[in-house]
Amino acid sequence: MPEALPPSLIFLVGAALIPFLRGRLRQVFALAVPVVAFFNYYLLSRGVHWRFELLDFELILGRVDSWSLIFLHVFTLLSFIGILYVIRDNNPLDLVGGLLYAGSAMGVVMAGDILTMFVFWEMLTVGAVLCLLARKTVESGKAAVRYLLVHLFGGGVLMAGIVVHIAEGGSTAFDQIGLEGVGSWLMFIGFGINCAWPVLGAWLTDTYPEASIGGVVFMATFTTKTAVYVLARTFSGEPTLIWIGVIMAVVPIFYAVIENDLRRVLAYSLINQVGFMVVGVGLGTTLSLDGTAAHAYCHILYKALLFMSIGSVIYRTGKSKATELGGLVRSMPLTCLFCCIGAASISAFPFFSGFVSKSMIMSAAADGGHVLVWLALLFASAGVFHHAGIKIPFFAFFSHDSGIRCKEAPINQLLAMGIAAFFCLFIGTFPDSFLYPMLPNLASGYVPYTFGHVLDQYSLLLFSALAFTLLMLAGLYPAEVRAVNLDAEWFYRRGGAVVYRLADRILNSLNSAVARIVQGSVIGGLTRFFESGSARIACLVMVPLWRLSGRDEEQIAQGRVSLAARMRSDAFPVGVTVFGAVILLGLLSLVYYTAFRRG
Amino acid sequence: MNPSDSSSSPDPAEMPTWFLRPQNVRRVIAGLAIACGLLVLVDLVVLLSGVDLHPHFGWERWPGFYAVFGFVMCSLLVLVSRFIVRPLVMRGENYYQRDEVSDFKSENQTDA
Fold it and tell me: Which residues of A touch B3 (CB under 8 A)?
């Protein structure tokens, strides 16, 4: 049996080769990378592989256990779906971004020590920035800069945390750390920035809607879910996480209800779903951690499916705002069907994937007696159905007829959506087929399909739908408005502008003052010096000598002129040059000798 | 992006598809109402028959708990979003653009 390779290596080499390929060959190659990675996945054996020594640290590229395998599995599957989705346009930025992003995310989940994890963690940002740039608009370019700045800051915080953690005597082991000491807090916050925690996560809803239609599929998959994975490894059972997760699950849904850009609505619901996972990590029981892993798996697929369906709408119509869309079920019936499957999955309808994973986390919260947490998550479940489950398909494909008539999505996009939709249904209907057996604790004996659970879930969802319908009919549902809704990104977008203006004032006035001094006096002086300085120095030496030798003033003036001319044209007898060089060498050796004698 | 596609393939009949016909919208709403009624009925039957559904909390089995919770919370969600959150956070569409550096200003309307 052939040896397995580090999965990240397959993707990174793939990403590096894409720019050298053209046309059909590039398409085939890009699709082949995740396929090869999938075969490679089945060659991996459990245990620790690929260790390297660097200075005093041991770097581990491959820790293969249930946790890393389930994330690796879904990342590989998703990278195939994502590449298939973007393959028609053959945009190298999308392909390199997607493969690099996938490779980095796999590097993080396979890492066996914090330093290796950190290197791949930083590379995630590069992939995301490429996915933003792939949109090739002015807005996406600016979003890429904002994304980069926020994540460089986050990486800096994490780096500081790691350094302090090691300096405090912590090990580089990528295992349970727990919140003690400054280092662990800084790492906690560094992870939290990528995990889109309240306030820290404003970058997500700010930038995701600006990405390319395929790029956002990768972005929605890798960054937040690797952060969940890392938190589960290092801070599982940390009670702070329960409340962070609850806020993430609850607050964004209010924004989602009033948001007009459908991809931003999806970004809000992404935070809502990651909130469930963070609660699962915070609870730290075998069931809740299994729920987190299962929910990450299901979420990646249905969130990608939803982003792809809206992406196809953008691909065909160029529009993503609820105010401009509607009635597309006529033109894009298959895309609409896939969108509805994604919507049903995120809403956790029975027989769709969200149902079998989200309920594990809620069940774990109830088992632990966390009544408030459980109620908040129930509200978040109803809320996510409301905005992602109803609002997304309703405003894009139903609602009023916008008059847009377009073609169905291209075949590669339909295939990508079809694969994701198949997995949403298959996992939801047969959770024991392959999802539950992959979980770290084999689902802890959880049974999703009981009569009570199905009945309760249908009651919750259908009455939420009833509320939506009645509010719509009564005209109470907030009309879609083209607007910006303020969130914590205000601090860096407005704050950034203030910093920019301050920097403009201070640095530019400093700049111009320095320019005046340098260009006005220093450069002029230097120019004069290099033009005639050496001649003047030579004159200073020669004129007294000429005087002593008895030359008159006229001869001396002639001597000055000829000296200056020789200096300019470097026309000196060889003897003079050698003499000068010998003196210079003598001086150098003197300096060298004295300096090193003393040293 | 292929914005040009949006004007292509005019449907000869121009009949609204099934989902967009008003009478069908009414049918969907009626179906939803009936389904909701049936769920409440099942909930009551379960309660009266005394079948144990293993709830985590006793009040989960109050008849219509999930129904009332879903309906009330979703209504609240919409009303709070509309009347409290939106007035607080909504700004003009070009809120952030006004701060931007002048050399971007001429280009920032290009994105569809």
Answer: 317-318
